[in-house]
Design a protein that fits this description.
By secondary structure, this protein is an alpha+beta fold. The chain has helices at about 5-15, 15-25, 40-50, 60, 90-100, 135-145, 165-180, 195-205, 230-245, 335-370; strands at about 5, 35-40, 75, 80-85, 120, 130, 155-160, 180-185, 220, 245-250, 255-265, 270-275, 280, 285-290, 290-300, 305, 310, 315-320, 330-335. It binds guanosine-5'-diphosphate and magnesium ion (MG).
C-alpha cells in the first residue's frame, strides 16, 4: 500500500495515534490521525519509534495470476469458447438456440435448460464447445476492456437476405482488435431472396476474405430456422479449435472469469463463471473482484448440481459474499482467511482510489471556473 492513515500505522505499531502525530509535528508535518501519509514518511516514523520495517509487497496482500504460467507438460486440451456476433435480427439468438439443440447430452429427464449466460454442448463426435450466451458487442468489448479475453473464436452471423450492415462492420472491427479468429455464418439461406455470394463479395471490402474467395476465413451457409448447415458450422468450429491448440492445466486451484452476476432473491449473489484453468470444487475458498466467498454450489447450464468444474466449463457459482462484475477474475485461495484478507485489501484500495480522485475533480472544476 502506498499510503496509510496515521491511526492505521499507529495500530500496526501498537503505539498511540497521538504520539505519532506529535512525532510528525516535530518532523515539521501537521497532520491528524485520520490523514494519510506516504510510505517514506511512514518508514521514518517507524524508525523513529524503533520498530523494524517490513515493507509489505503487493503480492503478499493481493493476487495477480495473469503472469503465473503453468508448465507446458501440465497442460491438457480444453474446449473452445465461442461468441456469436452480428447485426441485430440477423439471427444470433436463433443460432444460439439451434446450436444448443444439437447437444447430444441432454439434461436429466425433466431437467430444464436454464439461461446462465453461457452453455456447453457435446457434439456428435464427442467434442465439447462452450458458447457465450450473452450476444451483444458491448459485453464482448467491456469484458475485453477489463482484460478478460475469454473468447477463442467469434462467429460472425450475416443474414444472406440483408447483407453487411453497420453492426456487422462493428463486429468485424471488434474481432480484429481482439485478434480472435472468425468464422462467417451466412444465415437465413432458406429464404428465397438469400444471396450468400453477395455477402462473401461485400466482406472483401472489410478485409474479410472467406475460403470461398480463396482466403483463410471459414464460411458456412446455414439456416438457424431449418437447421441446415449447422453440422458444417460445428465442423468449422472444431477445425478452428484444433488449429488453435487450446490448452489449460486442469489439476490445480481454479481461475475463472465472471460472465454475468446478479443478486438472486432466494439464492443470494450468483455468478456465472467460465473456468479458465484448474478445477473449481465445492468448498473452495475464493476471491472474486473485491468479494470473497466459498463455493456452496456449482450448477451447470442444465440445472444440475456438480461437485467440480474444469477448464472452459461455464457454471453458476453460489456462495459469494457480494455481487461481482462481469469480467472479474475469480481465484481460488488456500483459506477463508486469505480470501477475506485479499478482498479487504482490494476494497480498501478501491476506496482509496475514489478518494484520491476527488481533489482532482475539484481542481478541474476550479480551473474551469477561473
Ligand atoms: P438476433 O437479433 O440477431 O438475435 O436475431 P434473432 O435470432 O432474434 O432473429 C431475428 C428474426 O429472424 C427472428 O424473427 C427469427 O425467427 C428470424 N430468423 C433467424 N434465423 C433465421 C433463418 O435462418 N431463416 C429465417 N427464415 N428466419 C430466421
Ligand atoms: Mg437476439
Amino acid at each position: 500500500p502506498e499510503a496509510i492513515t496515521v491511526q492505521e500505522l499507529a495500530n500496526r505499531m501498537a503505539e498511540k495515534g497521538a504520539d505519532l502525530v506529535k512525532a510528525l509535528f516535530s518532523m515539521g508535518m501537521m497532520v491528524t490521525v485520520n490523514q494519510t501519509i506516504d510510505q517514506d514518511t511512514a518508514e521514518l516514523l517507524v524508525e523513529e519509534f524503533g520498530h523494524n520495517i517490513t515493507r509489505v509487497s503487493e503480492s503478499d496482500v493481493d493476487i495477480d495470476t495473469s503472469e503465473d504460467m503453468d508448465p507446458e507438460e501440465t497442460l491438457r486440451p480444453r474446449p473452445p469458447v465461442v461468441t456469436i456476433m452480428g447485426h441485430v435480427d440477423h439471427g444470433k439468438t436463433s443460432l444460439l438456440d439451434a446450436l444448443r439443440g444439437t447437444d447430444v447430452v441432454k439434461g436429466e429427464a425433466g431437467g430444464i435448460t436454464q439461461h446462465i449466460g453461457a452453455y456447453q454442448i457435446t457434439t456428435k463426435d464427442k467434442q465439447k464447445i462452450t458458447f457465450l450466451d450473452t450476444p451483444g458487442h458491448a459485453a464482448f468489448t467491456e469484458m475485453r476492456a477489463r482484460g478478460a479475453n475469454v473468447t477463442d473464436i467469434v462467429i460472425l452471423v450475416v443474414a444472406a437476405d440483408d447483407g453487411i450492415m453497420p453492426q456487422t462492420i462493428e463486429a468485424i472491427n471488434h474481432t480484429k482488435a481482439a485478434g480472435v479468429p472468425m468464422i462467417v455464418a451466412i444465415n437465413k439461406c432458406d429464404k428465397p431472396e438469400a444471396n450468400p455470394q453477395k455477402v462473401r463479395e461485400r466482406l472483401l471490402e472489410h478485409d474479410v476474405i472467406v475460403e470461398a474467395m480463396s482466403g483463410d476465413v471459414q464460411d458456412v451457409e446455414l439456416s438457424a430456422k431449418t437447421g441446415a448447415g449447422l453440422d458444417k458450422l460445428i465442423e468449422a468450429i472444431n477445425l478452428q479449435a484444433e488449429l488453435l491448440e487450446l490448452k489449460a492445466r486442469p489439476d490445480r486451484d481454479a481461475d475463472a472469469t465472471v460472465i454475468e452476476a446478479q443478486l438472486d432473491k432466494g439464492r443470494g449473489p450468483v455468478a456465472t463463471v467460465l473456468v479458465t484453468r484448474g478445477t473449481l470444487k465445492r468448498g473452495d475458498n475464493f476471491v472474486v473482484g473485491t468479494q470473497s466467498g466459498r463455493v456452496r454450489a456449482i450448477i451447470d447450464d442444465k440445472g444440475q448440481q456438480l461437485k467440480e468444474a474444469g477448464p472452459s466449463m461455464p457454471v453458476e457459482v453460489l456462495g459469494l459474499g457480494g455481487v461481482p462484475s462481469a469480467g472479474d477474475n475469480l481465484t481460488v485461495v488456500e483459506s477463508e482467511q486469505r480470501a477475506r484478507e485479499v478482498a479487504k485489501y482490494r476494497q480498501e484500495k478501491a476506496t482509496e482510489k475514489r478518494t484520491a480522485l476527488a481533489p482532482t475533480n475539484f481542481d478541474t472544476m476550479f480551473n474551469n471556473l477561473a
